[in-house]
């Protein structure tokens, strides 16, 4: 209780809102959303996307922010209080966030690399007169499989032919990765007090650049064709289950449900803060940002299709290449190319920093909640502990800046941000909405804000479980390269490093609590809403004596 009372809070509530927007709005809004729109028939993707925002994104974010603000704890302690049998869900979210922060900072490294390169005139990917270019290079935009553009051949990755070849360490990327972690540390070492000041810039400035890019792109020849492709649906695409699953996954991953980042940051809110207002602000701005980015990207697509003389639907676009290949290629043909390139990659830097802040903060907050006395005794100052966390994450990210790095990155991203997070979120909804109960969560909301959750949110919390049941997992791949079986096995090991905490937490709870397996399971899962001793006695008879701890919620059997 003393730790709860002494817990720091945001200097101003707007700092949490901006930090939440910065956490939710990331690089996925810039490349993944437009890419999924492109692959799913343009405007047809917007229909399931907006529907999933209403029935999936907003209700789940509302749930997480409520738990974090009421419990005033990081994910580990908050989920342990909600449902001790599934306390491993909190530990799994911390593990996922830490794994992600080790490789996600590599994306910031790439953005810095391109940012530094953008100060050259001409841009290094603007022509084929470079030592790394092949005889197949062409300075003109092309869709031919027998030739490649200068932006496609740019030397940043120098990747090997597959995950089997490790290659050598890219020392330039290694040093930029170190610089990226120094930037992260300087922004978060004082906790929410320093992060709250940084987000005023990093959360707002990307919108200035996006709007400037949109104004410029819409004046390019062919831009209207790209925008038309973006907003006019191909209705037959709605018959594909994959389009709906992609829409749900995009909402889920973009907002950051299950990562623990927003839950951790909301634990620093004032107790009576308006949770619903923050929920709507963060989720709606996140989706509007994706749509704004869609207009920016598709106007550039229209320009590229005009240069190549082919329809927008036939452009060669695949995943992250949209940001680091296609868009740089568009810059090369724009007036004042260096200016637009610097602005764009600086925007990517700001977006990446915000998301990285949140992931590192999850690890720091959770360990400080659990081992505060021990950590303070060893490190003396919180700043040194944050430095240690950043240092460990830096060393774990080094394989991603080797020549094999893009394959390591893709493998870790697939099995962490897609596979692991779906398992985690399913059990998080079970723990909060079923075991803890939607009614009790509404009681907490009423205690904090004076208003209960309406019936819409309570219904959506149940519908979410149905959405999880249709999500399908596919093997990891990078462009046309399919990872071999042993690499897929390594991917599942990466996934298990986070998922394994869920059963381990349950086993630990069953081990330490008195009573049989059936008794403890009955209380937490089979009939979690029974609030009286009489209800439990009626289920197990007079052979079980019970005592109540932490109020009427938790029962121990002799």
Unreliably modeled segments: 527-537, 542-558
CATH topology of the largest domain: Amino acid/polyamine transporter I
Largest sheet: 2 strands, parallel
In total, how many beta strands? 6
Q: How far is it from the N-terminal to the C-terminal residue, by CA? A: 28 Å
Order of helices and strands: HHHHHHEEHHHHHHHHHHHHEEHHHHEE
Give the overall form: globular
**How much strand content do the residues show?**
under 5%
What is the average per-residue confidence, as pLDDT, rounded to a whole number?
79
Transmembrane segments: 12-31, 43-63, 94-116, 168-186, 198-215, 243-268, 280-304, 339-364, 384-409, 415-434, 455-473, 493-513
Keywords: Disulfide bond, Membrane, Metal-binding, Sodium, Symport, Transmembrane, Transmembrane helix, Transport
Organism: Mastacembelus armatus (zig-zag eel)
GO molecular function: amino acid:sodium symporter activity; metal ion binding
What characteristics describe this protein?
single chain; 558 residues; mainly alpha; Amino acid/polyamine transporter I; two-stranded parallel sheet; two-stranded antiparallel ribbon; 22 helices; globular; membrane
């Amino acid at each position: 209780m003393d730790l709860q009372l002494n817990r720091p809070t945001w200097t101003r509530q707007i700092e949490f809102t901006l930090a939440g927007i910065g956490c939710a709005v990331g690089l996925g809004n810039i490349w993944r959303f437009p890419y999924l729109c492109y692959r799913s028939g343009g405007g047809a993707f917007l229909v399931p996307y907006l529907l999933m925002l209403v029935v999936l994104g907003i209700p789940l974010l509302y749930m997480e922010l409520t738990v974090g603000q009421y419990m005033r704890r990081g994910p580990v302690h908050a989920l342990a209080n909600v449902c001790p049998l599934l306390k491993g869900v909190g530990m799994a979210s911390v593990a996922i966030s830490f794994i992600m922060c080790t490789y996600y900072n590599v994306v910031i490294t790439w953005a810095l690399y391109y940012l530094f390169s953008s100060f050259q005139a001409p841009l290094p990917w603007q022509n084929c007169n470079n030592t790394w270019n092949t005889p197949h290079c062409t300075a003109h935009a092309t869709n031919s499989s027998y030739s490649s553009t200068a932006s496609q051949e740019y030397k940043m990755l120098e990747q090997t032919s597959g995950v089997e070849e490790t290659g050598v360490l890219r020392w330039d990327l290694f040093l930029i990765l170190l610089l990226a972690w120094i930037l992260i540390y300087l922004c978060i070492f004082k906790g929410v007090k320093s992060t709250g000041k940084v987000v005023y810039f990093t959360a707002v400035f990307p919108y200035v650049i996006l709007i400037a890019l949109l104004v410029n792109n819409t004046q390019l020849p062919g831009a209207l064709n790209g925008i038309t492709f973006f907003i006019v649906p191909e209705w037959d695409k709605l018959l594909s289950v994959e389009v709906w699953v992609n829409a749900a996954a995009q909402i889920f991953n973009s907002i950051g449900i299950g990562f623990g980042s927003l839950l951790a940051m909301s634990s620093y809110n004032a107790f009576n803060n308006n949770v619903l207002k923050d929920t709507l602000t963060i989720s709606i701005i996140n989706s509007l940002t994706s749509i704004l980015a869609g207009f920016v990207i598709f106007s550039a697509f229209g320009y590229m299709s005009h240069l190549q003389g082919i329809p927008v639907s036939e452009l060669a676009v695949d995943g992250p290449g949209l940001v680091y290949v296609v868009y740089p290629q568009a810059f090369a043909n724009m007036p004042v190319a260096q200016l637009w390139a610097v602005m764009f990659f600086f925007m990517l830097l700001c977006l990446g920093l915000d998301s990285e802040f949140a992931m590192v903060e999850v690890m720091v907050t959770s360990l400080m909640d659990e081992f505060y006395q021990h950590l303070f005794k060893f490190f003396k100052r919180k700043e040194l502990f944050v430095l240690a966390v950043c240092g460990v994450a830096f060393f774990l990210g080094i394989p991603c800046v080797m020549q094999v790095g893009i394959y390591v990155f893709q493998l870790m991203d697939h099995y962490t941000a897609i596979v692991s997070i779906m398992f985690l979120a399913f059990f998080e909804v079970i723990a909060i909405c079923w075991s803890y109960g939607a009614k009790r969560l509404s009681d907490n909301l009423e205690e904090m804000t004076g208003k209960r959750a309406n019936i819409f949110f309570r219904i959506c919390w149940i519908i979410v479980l149905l959405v999880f049941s249709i999500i399908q997992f596919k093997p990891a791949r990078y462009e046309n390269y399919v990872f071999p079986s042993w690499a897929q096995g390594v991917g599942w090991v990466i996934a298990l490093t986070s998922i394994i905490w869920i059963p381990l937490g349950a086993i630990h709870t069953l081990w330490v609590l008195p009573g049989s397996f059936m008794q403890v399971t009955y209380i937490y899962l089979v009939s979690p809403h029974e609030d009286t001793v009489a209800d439990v006695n009626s289920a197990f008879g007079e052979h079980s004596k019970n005592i109540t701890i932490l109020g009427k919620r938790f029962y121990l059997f002799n």
